[in-house]
Amino acid sequence: MKPISIDFAPFSVQREWHRVHPVARWLAVAGLLLCLLAGVRVQKLFHRLDSLDSEAARLAARAARLDRRSAAVTSAPIDAKRGEAVNSAVARLNLPWSDILDTLEAATPQQVSLLSVTPDTSGAQLKIEAESVSAEAMIGYIKALELQPRISSVYLMKHERVHDGFVDVIRFQIEAQWRRAES
Predict the structure, then answer these.
(1) Do 126 and 157 meet the contact criterion of CB atoms below 8 Å apart?
(2) CA-based nearest residue to 175, from 108, 101, 125, 115
(3) Is residue 91 domain-resident?
(4) How do residues 46-94 score in pLDDT, each as one tens digit?
(5) Domain ends where: 22, 44, 74?
(6) Hey, is 51 helix, strand or coil?
(7) What's the domain of life for this entry (predicted)?
(8) Looking at the 3D structure of the chain, how many domains does it have?
(9) Are 156 and 142 in contact (CB under 8 A)?
């Protein structure tokens, strides 16, 4: 027959604690310590969350104050000169720069160096400043620009011979009519 454990003593935590296997006791203590550490960490995170919420509320109030100030500032009318300057800058930014530069790069020979490209958005014109080592290279560049499908007319506006360091170069200005893409 199998022995039966009969215990008529009243329940106590101390007695139950000693009945549990020692490994289980150590695991229970370790689990309680981990729970305690997790609780401390959660409390720190909640404290940090509260501080971030208060900072967000402070920044939102500051942004609302700045919006009210900027609304008061932007309600003033803009003078005509400033409006034209802004519209001109926006028109320049809206040019198809990648197409323009690809077209100019395709037409530019190695003997020609581009110095500047300035757009005139009202007439879709480009003012190009460049320099070359010879007059033949300059004329070849003008002819190459005329062959580009996105450019309708090319005019040599001025040219001059300039001594640049050790060599003489020809610096010239071209005006080219830019064809806008049909949509």
Answers:
(1) no
(2) 125
(3) no
(4) 999 999 999 999 999 999 998 888 766 555 677 888 888 887 777 767 7
(5) 74
(6) helix
(7) Bacteria
(8) 2
(9) yes
